[in-house]
Amino acid sequence: MSRNFSQKWIYWLMRLTTYFVVFVVGFIVLDIVWRGAGAINVEFLFSMPRRSGAEGGIWPAIVGTLLLVAGSIVLAFPFGVATAIYLSEYAEHGRFTRTIRIATSTLAGVPSIVFGLFGLGLFVIFLKLGCSIVSGCATLACMILPTIIVSSEEALRAVPQSLREGSLALGATKWQTIWSNVLPYSIGGMLTGLILAIGRVAGETAPILLTVAAFYLPRMPRSIFDQVMALPYHLYVLATQHPDTAAVRPKAYGTALVLLLLVLGMGLTAIITRIHFRKKYKW
Predict the structure, then answer these.
(1) Which residues, other chains included, contact 96 with Cβ-Cβ below 8 Å and sequence gap of 6+?
(2) CA–CA distance from 206 to each of 80, 231, 237 (Å)?
(3) Which domains does the chain have, with CATH numbers?
(4) Taking 60 as the threshold, does the pLDDT of residue 1 lie above it?
(5) What is the dihedral of CA 180, 181, 184, 186, to 10 degrees?
(6) Distance between CA atoms of 3 and 260, rounded to whole angstroms?
(7) Closest CA relative to residue 211, chosen from 145, 144, 140
(8) Which one, of 146, 144, 156, lies nearest residue 86 by Cα?
């Protein structure tokens, strides 16, 4: 009797906790949509900012955010997958690999401002790349690399060992086995880490503040060594630092809504791709 009561109590506690989290997130999203929808129009989305962002649009910030997301993913994803393949398929299980895994998991939880300071010291000052797109993308890539490594390694471990053994028994090499019999079945799990990485990159402010972002830059970047505007930093300044905060508040909510839709759109694209690979490759 007491055991059944304890199980029911825990079940309802977890259920109420889930409902509460969903309610809070839903309320935040609805509030952003309600307050920001009125500010969104063609001029707001596709025109240049004027008067320090008090007028005009956010097109340079949208382009800058897309460039930073794309650049950081291009840099981090191949290195993350390659590292995961080495740790999962090639490295011997021992103290060295355990140390690498612990360090990777620890780095995944390091605050973003630490990565920002690291990027400032290494890419901006030491390598003399300046506050630029390449510095920002490299810093963001370092920040999301641990997440991609951990998720990719878990996806590789989930592939049954029998697929590897069958391929090797037929005469395939180690790399042929990984390329043909392991990677296709693990790509879905790797894309899960990519989704988390996209969401974190698109919403970060501290790393780009120190390495690439400019609040008011009413022109498009001409090279990878230019600064860019970015939606998170633009939103931060509009909401807290702008001299006419009350007047730009609708634009701040509009910027938040655009950022939210941008992250959801990129995440949805990755989810659809993941579903496609999971349907195509099943074991």
Answers:
(1) none
(2) 22, 12, 12
(3) 40-280 (1.10.3720.10)
(4) no
(5) -140
(6) 44
(7) 140
(8) 156
Q: How far, CA to CA in Å, does 229 sit from each of 28, 49, 96, 121, 232?
A: 25, 10, 41, 21, 9
Instruction: Write out the two tokens for 115.
Output: 């990565």
Which tokens belong to 248?
A: 């730009």
The pLDDT of residue 3: 67
For the chain, the three-class secondary structure string (H helix, E strand, C coil) is CHHHHHHHHHHHHHHHHHHHHHHHHHHHHHHHHHHHHHHCCHHHHHCCEEHHHCEECCHHHHHHHHHHHHHHHHHHHHHHHHHHHHHHHHCCCCHHHHHHHHHHHHHCCCCHHHHHHHHHHHHHHHCCCCCCHHHHHHHHHHHHHHHHHHHHHHHHHHCCHHHHHHHHHCCCCHHHHHHHHHHHHHHHHHHHHHHHHHHHHHHCCHHHHHHCECCCCCCCCCCCCCCECCHHHHHHHHHHHCCCHHHHHHHHHHHHHHHHHHHHHHHHHHHHHHHHHHHHCCC
Residue % of the chain over a pLDDT of 70? 95
Q: What would the two tokens of residue 42 be?
A: 């063609």
Residue 124 in this model has a pLDDT that exceeds 90: yes
Q: In degrees rounded to 5, what are phi and psi of residue 247? A: -70, -35
**pLDDT, position 63:** 93
pLDDT tens column, 9-43? 888 899 999 999 999 999 999 999 999 888 888 88
